[in-house]
Amino acid sequence: MNTRKFLLVVTISLLFILGACKKEAEEARTEEGTAPEAAPAAAIDPATAATVTGKVVFQGTAPKGKPIRMDAEPSCVKQHAAPVRSQEVVVNDNGTLRYVFVYVKQGLGDRTYPAPKEPAILDQKGCLYIPHVAGLQVGQELHVLNSDPTTHNVHEVPKNNPDRNQSQSPGAGPLMIRFPKAEVMVPVKCNQHPWMRTYLGVLTHPFFSVTNQNGAFTKGSLPLRGRSTTEGDAPPRQTPGVPPATSPARRKGC
Ligand SMILES: [Cu+2]
């Protein structure tokens, strides 16, 4: 794991902060893993909102993703013009890290954030999950598509949510999944194709982002009320078909 040192650089653009970095007792409790209690859902005042931007830098020798052999599924092989490599650790050309889930872990208070009516989308294409890392809210629908001419088997492997396993044949409609509890991250695998893996960050609020091909993330309309804490969570490195042996690497920023 010593090659997986992450430096989470967070630049916080504050439009306005009330009581900067003042620790409030009510903010001490974590918002990860528990749904907030009911509170008035007042609209977020743009005048007191903030935008958080940053990038995740990889330090060390960048690993090269292991080649994925999907010869057993010719219909997927021919969808790829170039050899496919594992996306477990993806270092961008500029030395940043892709697919890091960055989210606000603390400091949002008791405000509640209703789940969006729009579903989050997860596709299966070329025998890969697209995207490799995603986020959604508790109670929000996740629509899992099958764009391949083959059967997949969507198997969530959570710790705090129901363990579900559903087969999806070609041309079938989307699987509709909801997560009742917050959990970062929920691995999802395919029992038919052991190299397929995606990771879902499920939160009680919408303040999350996934680093892109430049290693950058951004999130706006953040109702900062003092100190808040962001955290980056990279999927654990693992051998296809083998459960992760270690916890995800984490680095904190403020
Ligand atoms: Cu599959």
Key structural traits:
disordered N terminus, Immunoglobulin-like, 1 helix, mainly beta, 254 residues, 5-stranded mixed β-sheet, 37% strand, globular, binds copper (II) ion
Account of the 3D structure:
- By secondary structure, the chain is mainly β.
- It has a single domain, classed as Immunoglobulin-like (Sandwich).
- It has one helix and 18 strands.
- It has one helix spanning 74-77, and strands spanning 5-14, 50-59, 90-91, 97-98, 101-106, 120-125, 128-130, 133-137, 142-146, 152-156, 165-168, 175-177, 183-190, 197-203, 208-210, 216-222, 229-233, 250-253.
- The strands form five sheets. It has a five-stranded mixed β-sheet with strand order 8-14-13-10-11, with no helix packed on it. A four-stranded antiparallel β-sheet has the order 15-5-17-18, with no helix packed on it.
- It is globular, with a radius of gyration of 19 Å.
- It starts with a strand and ends with a strand.
- Mean pLDDT is 80; it is low at 1-36 and 237-254.
- The structure holds copper (II) ion.
- Whole-number tally of structural domains: 1
Regions with little confidence, pLDDT below 50 for 5+ residues: 1-36, 237-254
- Name every ligand kind in the structure: copper (II) ion
Largest sheet properties: 5 strands, mixed
Mean pLDDT: 80
Order of helices and strands: EEHEEEEEEEEEEEEEEEE
In CATH, the homologous superfamily goes by the name: Cupredoxins -  blue copper proteins
The helix tally amounts to 1
Beta percentage is 35-45%
CATH class: Mainly Beta
Molecular shape: globular
User: And the CATH topology?
Assistant: Immunoglobulin-like
Second CATH tier, the architecture: Sandwich
Structural class: mainly beta
Strand order of the largest sheet: 8-14-13-10-11
Please provide the count of β strands.
18
